[in-house]
Amino acid sequence: MSQTVLLELSLKPDAIDSAKEVIRETLKATAAAEGNESLEVIVDDADPTKVVIVEKWRAAADHDAYLAWRATPEGASSLGSIVTGAPVTRTFEPFVAL
Fold first, then answer.
1. Model pTM score
2. Does residue 88 have a pLDDT over 90?
3. Where do the DSSP E strands lie in 1-98?
4. How many helices (H) and strands (E) would you count in the chain?
5. Which of 64, 92, 67, 91 minimizes the C-alpha distance to 77?
6. DSSP label at 46?
7. 9 neighbors 52 (Cβ within 8 angstroms)
8. I want to staple 56 with a disulfide (CB 3.0 to 4.6 A). Which of 7, 9, 37, 42 is the partner?
9. φ/ψ (deg, to 5) at 71
10. Pair 2, 56: CB distance under 8 Å
11. pLDDT tens digits, residue range 16-53?
12. Are 30 and 54 spatial neighbours (Cβ–Cβ below 8 Å)?
């Protein structure tokens, strides 16, 4: 079953300008991951330090494999340099077919 993942980031105020490039570079590997179907980065209209990455995955197992890879030295990213704390991850599966 497909999975949608919301990765919520709180950016350091002094990192907003550099955040776009860090996120872009990080998401290159995410986009290339097996089972990744799409990515979108959105920002809160009222607070530019609040960013959400919307990820669509073919299956929850694909996302789990991706997370395992990110936990390795090879998969490490530089997101930690631009955020104030750990990202909040929320996962969703389809509920009502439209």
1. 0.94
2. yes
3. 3-10, 36-43, 50-57, 88-92
4. 2, 4
5. 67
6. S
7. yes
8. 37
9. -80, -5
10. yes
11. 999 999 999 999 999 999 999 999 999 999 999 999 99
12. no
